[in-house]
Every structure is written in structure tokens, then in C-alpha cells.
Amino acid sequence: MTETLRLTVDKRDGYAVLYTEGYINNQGGEEIARVAYDLIGEGYRGLLLNLAGTKIVNSIGISILIEVIEKMLEVNGKLGFCNLTPTIEKTFHIMGLAQYAGIYKDEAEASTGIKA
Amino acid sequence: MTATGIWNELLGLAGRDGGERPYLERLLDAWCARYGVGGAGLYVDTERGAERIAAVGGAPFPALLAEASEHDLIEVRVPGGLVAYRRGGASAGMQTADPLPVLLACALRNHRLRRQIDQQRFQANYRGVELEALYEVGLAIASTLDPQELAEVILSRAVSLLDARRGALYLLEGGRYRLKHTVGGDAPPEFAADHPGIERLRREEDEGLCDLLPGAAHLLCVPISIEDSPRGMLAVGDKERRGGFGPFAANDRRTLGLFANQAAIALENVRLHIEALAKERLEREMQLAGEIQSRILPKGVPATPGFDLMGWNRPAQQVGGDYYDFLPMENGNLGVTVGDVSGKGIPAALLVSTLHSAVRLMLDRVEVGPILLQRLNQHIHASSAPNKFITLLLAQLDLETGDLRYVNAGHNPGLLIRADGSSTTLEPGGLPLGLLAGGAYRCESLHMGPGDLLCLYSDGITEAASPSEEEFGLDRLCALLTQYRGAHLQELVQLIDVEVREFSAGQPQGDDQTLVLLRRAIAGPLRSGD
User: Fold this and answer.
1) Do B165 and B214 form a contact (C-beta atoms < 8 A)?
2) Interface residue B163 vs chain A (CB under 8 A)
3) How many CB atoms lie within 10 A of CB B411?
4) Are residues B126 and A25, on separate chains, in Cβ contact within 8 Å?
5) Residues of chain A with pLDDT under 50
6) Is the C-alpha dihedral spanning B287, B293, B295, B301 positive or negative?
7) Which residues does chain B have within 8 Å of residue A73's beta carbon, measured at their own beta carbons?
């Protein structure tokens, strides 16, 4: 049977961390967007996606992540990614996500950037 | 604000880089004010329906509008989209002479163009990701020899690049396709190499293998093969689109085929590497076994007054376990032995070494006979693996009298060629050493008269095969020995060697070949009565 992305959220002081586990495709991307928009609605202006549990992202997933980034920019918020595999990090750079979202090595490095 | 003021403000916003949203919202504000509406949403027509691109006023407007009436909204069409507002507003209806609808239409067109540019930029960037993926798969091939790791890299890249929801990679092992990696869901752990769907795959009919990805509505499979020899299978399922999935495009098969080709090259590299390592290990082992064996075999012959003695051994390409030795004893007798250890390589060489030490240690303490052979048997039985054994013919010659005592533990019967041309065989008197812990042995004796020739040999001589798989045999050996029983022993060995090789007619030597020749000199010491 088809597996779906598992997503957990850790709300912190001033920002929220979304932990992904699985494939960021259409279903996974939509789930991330849904949760991210809810958090934005709750007033969060800093979101960090910890992709330690994700090894694959496809083009649909990337396009949805770009929309989430645009949404964050509209509300003057900040979006960051951390714990990316080298392949995903390279993909994000090529696709231009790194221009509008922070790419961090880990949560410790990201927390400073997201809150600033 | 005056109408002129609004137009100037809109012109300013339209000209600002990245100012689309403020411009659209101000435009909607102006529209709401013009028609007396509290709030409105601006929607652009897309394949999925009308998508909201801006909204003003407190009440929320849905992101996607299939039917405005479902949300209690009134829609006003403009070229390329619509404006939606809530019922109860005091709309006076748009006037054709009003510039606002024209501006809204222009804004929508601009928005669509910008979206198209974004999509084209996205696709151009994604071409870069595709190239990078193929490059990385190539790098992975060069950097790892782990089939599992290769399977993960190749499948992950194929699934993500083809926007597949599912994927599985199988490799052909032991006559079955075995699952090496899966993405996006479960897949059967294995399937038969003669699965009927594989034949259909040659005609690009993927549905024959739909059970590879249970639940997938659309399947794309390509074989992983090297020179038409199947090595595996790469399968992906359900090509994703925004909001759903569908069948794969025609060129997706070609892309997946590229990954399958990369996989085939990588896996072939792994196989060749493993083979090369195994060959290198075997060669090292054979070299070591050869060194062990060459150290054990006698470098020359001891002084045997009244007897000529000759030992000869030629190992096969794969070193076996032939063994012979000459053992001068404290009582002046000569021990002579020929043996053959089951198996090849290091294990056989080590067992030969064990036997060699045991015979040397025991022979001075115990004369050749049943007790000596029983002790040797117990020692070899305790020292060797259950399936290992040694055939051994051990003889003790009284150099003064020519009396010979021997025990044949399952070895090829030795040949005694009498000076008058008659012959007798030294038949086995017990099982090979190491087979049974409690083996019993029978000792035999005979007398070697002047000119009598004793030949001990290994089965590498008598079982040397011709191209028609006929064995050289004991009779041919016996005939040669009889005919040339008076020849110099070295010449006799060469003669037998030539005959055996000619008989084999270029067939590779399958086993070690050993010959031990012992002939009593005609003028040698004689016992009374000779």
C-alpha cells in the first residue's frame, strides 16, 4: 500500500518546527502546506522544516514548498530547512528555494536564523 | 481620495517591482468602493478552477472557487478570471465604460504571464536537477560497490525525477527477482524469473507486472539487463500531478531506461569486482598451498645401498593433496609412503602437513603395521573436518634383506614388477585415514628380489583422462613398468610422464600426479637364498 508522509509539529517560542518523515511528493507537500498555513494562521512567523527523515523530494513537492515560502514572505515571515541530505540540498539550490528560505545544517544553527 | 489620486496610486504600484499583490489589493479596494461592496476576491482561471490571487475585506474567500454560488458569493466575470463578492452588497453592476474591469483584466493577464514565466523557470531549473541526478548516479556507481546502496540511489533518483508516487527495484538472484529497495509503499519481496509479465514487458505492456506495486493504478517497468541477459527490474507507479496522479508520459520510459542502464553498469561493476577479488583470493590460497606442499615433499632421496630410489610429483593447477616421503629409520630400514588427501587448496595442504608430521614422529617408535596405522587414523580423524580423509600406502623396507612390510589404507594398489616381468599388487588393507575413528588395518609383507621394481603412485596417474574421457588405468601403467623395468628410474619416470600426457592429448591435468619408484639393484646386498 502507498505510504504517506508523517509530519509532527513542535511549537516553540516564536517559531515552530515541522519534522517530516517520508517522501515529499504531492500528498506530502500538501500536508506540509496545510500544517504550515494553519501555523501561519495561528500567528507563527517562523517555520523550520527539519527534513532529517526525508530522502526524496519530487517536483510537485518542490512546487508546493515554493508556495509555502511565498506565503511566508507575504506575511513577512521566515521559513528555513535543516538536516537536508546532500542531494536535497543541491536540489533546493538549483530550484532557487535557497534564495528565499534559509538552509541550515541543523536545528541549533536554524533556531538563530529563524528567530532573527 | 479623488479618482485621479487612485489612478496615480495604481500606476505607481503597477510599476513597482514585486508589487503585484499590493496593486491587486488596491485595485480590489477601488472596485469595492466604486460598487459599494464590503469585500471581494480576485480569481484567475486555471485548469483546476478559479484560483484566488487577492482578496480584500474582512470576510474570507475560498482559495479555489469551483462554483461561486456554493459559497454564497456573487461572481462578476472579467477576461481571464472573475471578481467574487458576498451577497448583500450594494453593487450597482459594472459599467462597460468603467476602466476598473479593464484594469482587472490586465492585472489577471499579467498574473497569468508571470505564472507562466515562473513555471518555465521552474521547469528549466528542474532540467538542471535531472542532469544533476544522472551525474550523481554516475558518481555513485564509481564510488560504491555495495549493491544495496546502489539500488537505493538509483531507485530514489528515478522515483523523484519521474514524479512517481511509488517505486521498486528488483535484482535477479538465484533464479528469482528479489526486492532490493522500495519507495512510497510495500512491494512483494520476490517473484519468479519466469513471471508471465516479463515476456509482456518486451512489448512494453507494463500491466503484466502490476502486482509488483500493489495498489498502483499506472505502472512503468523496464528491465535491468546486460547484453540481453536479465539482471533485474526497475518499476515505478502513478505519475503525480498537482492534486492527483495519472499515467506516465511516453518519454518517461526512456528516462527510466536510462536509470536501468546505469543500474546495469553499476551492478556489473560490482559483480566483476567480487569475481576479481575471489580469483585473487583463490590464487593467493593456491600459491600458499603450493608452498606448503613443496616444503613437505622430499628435496632428494636418502642413501639406500642396494636400491635405486626416485620420487616425482607434479601438482595440478589447483593444488591438491598428493604426498610422498622417504623416511630413514633408526633401525636402518627405510620408510616409504605415498598418500592423497581429499580436497584442494589450503585445507588439503594443511592436512598433508598434519599427516607428514605424524608419520615422521611415529615411525621411529612404532613399526609399520596395524597399530601405527590405527594411531595415524585416530590422529587424522581428530584433526580433520568430517568430510576429509587421506588414502595412504605406508611401507617399511629392510634394506639388508629386501623384506617389505606395508599397510595400504585405501590407496591405489602399489605395483611390484618382478625381475622376470611378473607383477603383483599391493592391495588395500583398510579404509582411508580419517573416515572412521575405529578403523582396522591389515599389514602385508613381501620380498623384493634383485631387479624387482616397486611403484607407488597416486590416482592422478591412473585416472588421467583422454579427450574421450577414458582413463589411463592401472594396466597401461603396469605394462610400461614391465616393459621398461630395467631402465634408469629417472628415464622411467619421464617415460611414464610422456605416455600419460600423450594419452591425455592436451586435456588439462585434473589432479596431482605422484610416482615413487624403488628398485632393488641386481648387484645389491642379497640375503641368503637370493
Assistant:
1) no
2) yes
3) 26
4) no
5) none
6) negative
7) none
